[in-house]
Amino acid sequence: MDAQPATALLDKPADPRPRTVLLAAPRSFCAGVERAIDTVERLLADPDRVEPVYVRKQIVHNTHVVAELAARGAIFVDELDEVPPGATVVFSAHGVSPAVRAAAAARGLTVVDATCPLVTKVHAEARRFAARGDTVVLIGHAGHEEVEGTAGEAPEATVLIDSPAAALALTVPDEDRVSYLTQTTLSVEETAETVAALRRRFPRLHGPASADICYASTNRQRAVEEVAARSEVFLVVGSANSSNSQRMVEVARRQGIPAYLIDDFTEIQPEWIVPAATVGLSAGASAPGRLVDEVLRALRRFGPLTVREHVSFTEDVFFAAPAAVRRRS
Ligand code: SF4
Q1: What atom in ligand 1 is closest to the CA of residue 244?
Q2: Which of 23, 96, 129, 269 has its CA at a distance of 20 to 30 angstroms from the CA of residue 49?
Q3: Rounded distance, CA 214 to CA 46, Å?
Q4: Complete DSSP assignment for 152-164
Q5: Measuring from atom 5 of ligand 1, which residue has the nearest CA?
Q6: Cis geometry, peptide bond prior to residue 26 (ω within 30 degrees of 0)
């Protein structure tokens, strides 16, 4: 029999036994995502606005966020040639390469840059390392927008790897002049293994002054690890193209339990929940908190539910809006 979505259970709770949900904290929006969404919202709300607001790529990797902003008037495009000359375009939280900035200038676009400041930091490191004559080894996932933007800062000097095996197999023009950077949303544990392999391969390896994997990815992964160790199944709310959400699922699975990425409560399958007395729950950095509330409401349909929050870290990071939107507000 095909699995039923949780919605199918709304009128007939299948399993009345008590169950506990352990809510991992921190979860859901990070400071970079808040800032990027706020940027688009402020532009849409500008009373002097006469033109549409274009956004290059998904502002953050979440289908619900993008759908809600599109419903309010934002126009999402894949490339700048879809934006009329002279219009306003927002660059997403994942950042862009210098080539994209140049293309926007050539088209006469007004750019509002919502790149997360922690991604901008990695871009600056890429330029600095490449200017010293280093080969810049970027640890990240091919095809991810953030990786394309970072690699674009020094395309001739950058090589992309994603594993310890790739690190050990790497050949470079000068083994004494090698630096590494990472995508901001990687697995803390796996990246440490890849960096260790790079160090074995290139003992004079140079790295960033502080970790490139951002505070939000690190904190959410550690919180998932702690909660998953006390749970029988784990749900992460987030979209399939969200790198930090995918890593959270992997962290939970490393604790030896089944873990699932769901865009929202409608994707919950009863056979995941029914056998579990304790369900771990979190949300990726780009997933709205209200989706977690909806998951809790859906889980209550399975029987009596106790919700306990497990706080691993408290976060107080805030990034001010880009100057271009502060001036308009
Ligand atoms: S996940 Fe990290 S790098 Fe990405 S937007 Fe959030 S704070 Fe910035």
Answers
A1: 1
A2: 96
A3: 31
A4: TTSTTTEEEE-SH
A5: 32
A6: yes
**pTM of the full predicted structure?**
0.94
Mean pLDDT for the chain overall? 95
User: Considering only 10-19, 97-106, 120-129, 270-279, which range has the smallest mean pLDDT?
Assistant: 10-19
pLDDT tens track for 91-111? 999 999 999 999 999 999 999
**Ligand 1: which atom is nearest the Cα of residue 93?**
5
Strand partners, 237: 262, 283
Q: Does residue 245 contact residue 238 with C-beta atoms inside 8 Å? A: yes
Active site residue 153: no
Pocket of ligand 1 (CB under 6 A): 30-33, 93, 116, 118-119, 184-185, 214, 216-217, 244, 285
How far is 177 from 100, CA to CA, in rounded Å? 28
8-state DSSP, 206: B
Sheet of 305-311, strands arranged across = 259-262, 233-237, 278-283, 19-25, 305-311
Q: What spacing in Å lies between the alpha carbon of 16 and ligand 1's midpoint?
A: 39
Residue nearest to atom 8 of ligand 1 (CA): 32
Q: Of these residues, 34, 125, 145, 146, which one is catalytic?
A: 146
